[in-house]
């Protein structure tokens, strides 16, 4: 499933599918499947509040003959902003991670006015980690995740992710952006440390990491 078909709300994935496209595993996951008769049958604010209240990881699936219409109705409840970032690999197969607010994360940030997505990714990686040598290779895909800003407005962030390579070099975390550390780690070693990882970041790594990590 392409990254762009998944929307991340806290640790839950929100999916919009046709009935015939459901996998057997998804069909057996009945507690978070909705089959609304029409778009107007969904109280989106109540649904979003419910999903935001969930603890742990879930898949919430909306099933419809016209899933794109449901997805648009969901998107309309948020203000959309765009960001760009990178999955950066060094010569040892290690990933350039940041630790932001106590979570494993990948460097990314807002695309500025008039800026291309690729340039924004390079700039944000440099600003957040101090990495000065970077080779942007190809686009991995996009993710969507939601959060509330300082005035409690719902935001849907569309992040464009690029696969990059870089030599191992000195890193300097951007502390004013809440970044506690910037460091190189093999992805399979992350669970040994006392930090969580966002589900959308896990999916970006699974899709883009070239060494079976």
CATH topology of the largest domain: Nucleoside Triphosphate Pyrophosphohydrolase
Number of strands: 12
Domains counted in the coordinates: how many?
2
The Cα radius of gyration reads: 18 Å
**Total helical segments:** 5
Distance N to C terminus: 18 Å
Indicate the CATH class of the largest domain.
Alpha Beta
Q: Indicate the structural class.
A: alpha/beta
| N-to-C series of helices and strands | EEHEHEHEEEEHEEEEH
Output the CATH homologous superfamily of the largest domain: Nucleoside Triphosphate Pyrophosphohydrolase
Architecture (CATH level 2) name of the largest domain: Alpha-Beta Complex
Instruction: Give the low-confidence spans.
Output: none
- Helical amount among residues, as a percent range? 10-25%
Shape: globular
Q: What value does the average pLDDT take?
A: 89
Multimer state: single chain
What does this structure look like?
It is built from five helices and twelve strands. The protein is an alpha/beta fold. The chain has helices at residues 24-28, 44-53, 67-75, 117-129, 199-208; strands at 7-9, 12-17, 33-34, 58-63, 79-89, 95-100, 103-105, 108-110, 135-148, 154-165, 179-185, 196-197. The relative contact order is 0.20. It folds into two domains: 3-75, no CATH class; 79-208, Nucleoside Triphosphate Pyrophosphohydrolase. Helices cover 22% and strands 35% of the residues. The mean pLDDT is 89. The strands form two sheets. Strands 3-4-2-1-9-10-5-8 form an eight-stranded mixed beta sheet. It has a four-stranded mixed beta sheet with strand order 11-6-7-12. The longest helix is centred in the middle third of the chain and has 13 residues, at 117-129. The radius of gyration is 18 Å and the shape is globular.
